[in-house]
From TrEMBL:
Top-level taxonomic group: Bacteria
Sample GO molecular function, one term: transmembrane transporter activity
UniProt source species: Escherichia coli
Statement: the UniProt record of this protein carries the keyword Amino-acid biosynthesis: no
GO CC term (a single one): membrane
Keyword ATP-binding belongs to the record: no
Record-given protein name: Multidrug efflux protein
Pfam families the record matches: ACR_tran
SUPFAM superfamilies in the record: Multidrug efflux transporter AcrB transmembrane domain
Transmembrane parts of this sequence: 31-52
Keywords: Membrane, Transmembrane, Transmembrane helix
InterPro entries: Acrflvin-R
């Protein structure tokens, strides 16, 4: 698990008093949108490189 995920789960457990499983589910609910957005942005930026000729593409 990435460190930021563990820290977020620990924060939720401390602040809200939730058990580990519930805190993990809540943490993933909070950050899943950001993870999807990051994946889409990186795909939009780097996928077109596959279609360029020369040293950047195939």
């Amino acid at each position: 698990m990435p460190l930021w995920w563990v820290e977020n789960v620990e924060r939720i457990m401390r602040d809200e008093g939730l058990p580990a499983r519930e805190a993990t589910e809540k943490s993933m609910g909070e950050i899943s949108g950001a993870l999807v957005a990051i994946a889409l942005v990186l795909s939009a930026v780097f996928l077109p490189m596959a279609f360029f000729g020369g040293s950047t593409g195939g």
